[in-house]
Amino acid sequence: VRRIVVVGGVAGGMSAAARARRLDEHAHIVVLEQSAYVSFASCGLPYHLSGEIADREALLLHTPQSLAAALALDVRTGSRVTAVDTAARTVTVATADGEYVLGYDALLLAPGAVAVRPPVEGLDHPSVHALRTVPDLDALNERVARLVADRTAGAPAPAAVVVGAGLIGLEAVEALTTRGLQVHLVELADHVLPPLDPELAPLLAGELRDHGVGLHLGVAARAVTPRGDDGAVTVTLSDGTELAADVVVVNVGVRPASDLAREAGLALGPTGAIRVDADQRTSDPHVWAVGDAVEVTQAVTGAVGPVPLAGPANRQGRRAADSMVGHRTTPQAPVLGTAIVRVFGLTAAVTGPNQAALTRAGIAHEVVRIHPGHHAGYFPGTEQVHLVATFAPDGRLLGAQGVGRAGVDKRIDVLATALRAGMTADDLAELELAYAPPYGSAKDPVNMLGFVAQNVLDGTTPQWHPDELDAARADTLVLDVRQPAEFARGHVPEALNVPHTELRGRLDEVRAAAAGRPVSVHCASGVRSHIATRVLLAAGLDARNLSGGWLTLSAVH
Ligand code: FAD
Predict the structure, then answer these.
(1) What is the DSSP letter of 42?
(2) How far from each other are the two terminal CA atoms of the chain, in whole angstroms?
(3) Ligand 1 atom at minimum distance from 291 CA
(4) What residues does the Rhodanese domain cover (predicted)?
(5) Using H for helix, E for strand and C for coil, what is the string for 133-165?
(6) Contacts of 14 (CB under 8 A, 6+ apart)
């Protein structure tokens, strides 16, 4: 009988154990988990904190007993693997009752990640919490419940400081606000959700402020100091700001939990993640590894490092099981890093590298920004989807991001599929997507990205970008083709306002104002200015259209 030993019993580890059993009814499959819980829903933790998942037990998807009954797995909680001997093919397991050594034929390492501890003084204060595990959630929940219950009528809301505005930090902010706390969010980067392109992040910042969240961007938390004996603290920031807090949640990212692998002599990559091949096999032929602890190759840029997301971990677990039992495997494809988060009424989602990552990798790209309705404009309840996509000069899609109140999730999933398939702007333009007025448009936002990219890449409509505003003002005529009322609400200084509907009759005026310079056209979103740019080009002027229009320009300036 083959013995498969799995270290870590949550996303990647349990996917592997379950798949291995479905493929091999006779193997002895042991899952060793250091904590008291296996197969819990990490991703659901913030939603129990918010109260949306009311039943804590709903997060605990399985128990050792249910896994023994359904899958004949030998699941051992409270069992920490402290050493791997690859020559003897054994692991050392530490339990409350002492240590033992267990042999394996195939070993899977799925130990996940460990939280990065930022250099903040006083982080050990009991009011400072993490949000990674079930015990973390229980402790935080208890603190929040006590603060809410102890609040006397008329007293200010209890205060929370969340350090780190990544995916989990944002979910924590939303949950704590929902529970009635006054929340401050501290982020070292200059915008929330650092993977998001800077022109989309202000939308999230606005949503957070509208829900009363205090934003502290571009600053670090430096110290947590006690302020009385009821658990109240002061969080001091690098700009000298002092925030009073009753609870602090720190989530500044994770690093691969690869110490065990390193000590066992397995190869690690430069980021400290475990190196694996396309079948999840490590440098030792009897050891596989998956999840947050391993290195992956990122699509498009080819960057190598960990991508701590549940989807890749689960799929890798399945693949590792296939490989361990000698089943046909589907080799790991480069990881897109597709991710999504809800921030109150907004959804933000990304797939593939952002613009900064493309620039870092030296990959030439054109950026397309659009703001279409999520379904037909004439159907009630249309919401704008703000989409940014990048394309290679040959038309290949490189990455995409979106923010909006509705319809963002399906656009990003279509774009992630297109990215995986290596599609181009022409392909996006030709995608046939489901349409009836309550759901989309005959020209879906994804088609629109393709159309705009086609126009830009084949030179039909050249474009300029928000970060070129200073040069546009200095060296070109900025032509605003919105209606005068829109112009009056805010415009680029010295811009000439000629509504696009009047442009054909006022070409001489534009020509005179341009005085031989190029014309940098814009409207609110880029649609009317596209028409105007075509009119100007046909009239022999050197014209270009602002990518993303005033909506994007005003977000970044
Ligand atoms: P894990 O699922 O973390 O499991 C590793 C397990 O190994 C742990 O239980 C640990 O105790 C155990 N272990 C470690 N070392 C040892 C040892 N030596 N011996 C025994 N056991 C050990 N991803 C998304 O894609 N979408 C989301 O919405 C999302 N939300 C998240 C929300 C939160 C609050 C958190 C914490 C994570 C979220 N993630 C999300 C990330 C996702 O949960 C992880 O990427 C995924 O769980 C990684 O799977 P894994 O198997 O590598 O590690």
Answers:
(1) G
(2) 66
(3) 52
(4) 472-557
(5) CHHHHHHHHHHHHHHHHHCCCCCCCCEEEEECC
(6) 6, 31, 38, 39, 62, 67, 317
Q: What pLDDT shows up at residue 1?
A: 81
Tokens of 375: 């379904």
Angle at 271 between CA 301 and CA 40, to 5 degrees: 95
Euclidean distance between CA atoms 104 and 101, whole angstroms: 10
Segments of the chain with pLDDT less than 50 = none
Return the structure tokens found at 416.
């992630």
CB contact at 8 A, 400 and 342? no
How are beta strands 397-404 and 346-351 bridged, if at all? antiparallel
Block residue for tokens 């005529």: 477
φ, ψ dihedrals at 406, nearest 5°: -155, 150
What's residue 229's pLDDT?
A: 79
Pocket lined around ligand 1, Cβ cut-off 6 Å: 7-8, 10-13, 32-35, 42-43, 45-46, 80-81, 110-112, 131-132, 168, 257, 260, 291-293, 308-311, 313
CB 357 within 8 A of CB 196: no
pLDDT of residue 391: 98
Nearest to 491 by CA among 546, 442, 428: 546
Complete DSSP assignment for 287-312: EEE-GGGB-EEBTTT--EE----HHH
Residues in the chain: 557
Protein residue whose Cα sits closest to atom 46 of ligand 1: 310
Q: With contact defined as beta carbons under 8 Å apart, do 249 and 160 qualify?
A: yes
Which domains, ranges and CATH numbers included, belong to the chain? 3-113+255-324 (3.50.50.60), 128-252 (3.50.50.60), 345-457 (3.50.50.60), 463-556 (3.40.250.10)
349 by DSSP, 3-state: which? strand
Pair of tokens at residue 96: 């409350």
For residue 405, what pLDDT is reported? 98
From the CA of 46, give the closest atom in ligand 1. Answer: 34
